Amino acid sequence: APLLEVTEVSRLYPGPRQGWFGRSEPTRAVDRVSLILHPGQSIALVGRSGCGKSTLARMILALDAPTSGSIRFDGMELAGKSQAELRPARRQMQVVFQDPYGSFDPRQTAEKLVAEPLYLLDAPLSRAETRDTVAEALHQVGLTPQDMEKYPHEFSGGQRQRLSIARAIITHPKLIVADEPVSALDVSIRAQILDLFADLNRRLGIAYLFITHDLTVARAVSDDVLVMHDGRIVECGKTLDVLAAP
Ligand code: ADP
Ligand code: ADP
């Protein structure tokens, strides 16, 4: 069965008013989008800025509700659910943003930051179990147990992105939504982080929805690609074919 099934999903925003007496036309940020993602599959979602990628991602993460359409994740319809009802689904998906600095509390150690998703589990782990689990997640992303005691500013940009990936994988989610996760990184670091993403997909079988405006980034992490334009999916196929198209 699919892990994620998005069916005819739209999201309208109230548009800007046209002049003093003009009627406002709503913005169709996402316009009747459908997609299917299987367990362990990595799909890249590409398109230029403003085409609706983040809006779609927020709906899949149940952070925003569709105006219409259906989103099924792991066998559960997300639309119309309460926060409490969404918790089991939320635990199975994590997000990695472009700039982890923005979502890291500078006063917390890496241990606390990476452990954050664990605090939301129904059965909280002991301090020792938490440390072991954090150490394992850090190991998976190429950091060391010593890094647990450090604060965010003591890490380089690439290492900080490793930290946010460690936080994303710590609960063994079935899906990671990565929103431009390498766009803020130096080109030399970018390739290392993309290798890490590809490696985790292969080793841990985590599915990705990998959002990027860059097709060469898409190629590094996903065999399959969806191209979005003006809120719609205008093309889907194998990344190599889409890259090769004129
Ligand atoms: P506009 O008409 O708004 O100026 P363009 O047609 O020049 O936009 O650019 C389309 C953008 O949409 C590309 O930059 C790309 O991000 C994305 N895109 C990629 N492939 C397609 C496609 N086959 N059809 C439409 N848009 C595409
Ligand atoms: P992308 O992630 O591809 O850059 P977004 O999903 O951020 O695109 O935006 C898609 C469209 O929806 C844009 O036209 C944007 O201006 C509009 N939009 C996004 N968020 C809002 C909002 N909160 N209110 C009104 N319009 C929005």
Gist of the model:
The mean pLDDT is 93. It contains nine helices and ten strands.
SSE layout and pairing:
Blueprint: E1 4-13, E2 27-37, E3 42-46, H1 53-60, E4 68-73, E5 76-77, H2 83-91, E6 93-96, H3 100-103, H4 110-115, H5 127-140, H6 157-169, E7 175-179, H7 187-204, E8 207-212, H8 215-221, E9 224-229, E10 232-238, H9 239-244
Parallel strand pairs: 3-8, 3-9, 6-7, 7-8
Antiparallel strand pairs: 1-2, 1-4, 4-5, 9-10
The structure holds adenosine-5'-diphosphate (2 copies).
Please describe the structure with a list of short key phrases separated by commas or semicolons.
four-stranded antiparallel β-sheet, binds adenosine-5'-diphosphate, 10 strands, 246 residues, 9 helices, ABC transporter ATP-binding protein, alpha/beta, six-stranded mixed β-sheet
Description:
- With 246 residues, the protein is an alpha/beta fold.
- It has helices spanning 53-60, 83-91, 100-103, 110-115, 127-140, 157-169, 187-204, 215-221, 239-244; strands spanning 4-13, 27-37, 42-46, 68-73, 76-77, 93-96, 175-179, 207-212, 224-229, 232-238.
- Strands 6-7-8-3-9-10 form a 6-stranded mixed sheet, sandwiched between helices. Strands 2-1-4-5 form a 4-stranded antiparallel sheet, covered by helices on one side.
- The radius of gyration is 19 Å and the shape is globular.
- It starts with a strand and ends with a helix.
- Residues 47-48, 227, 229, 234-235 line the site of one adenosine-5'-diphosphate.
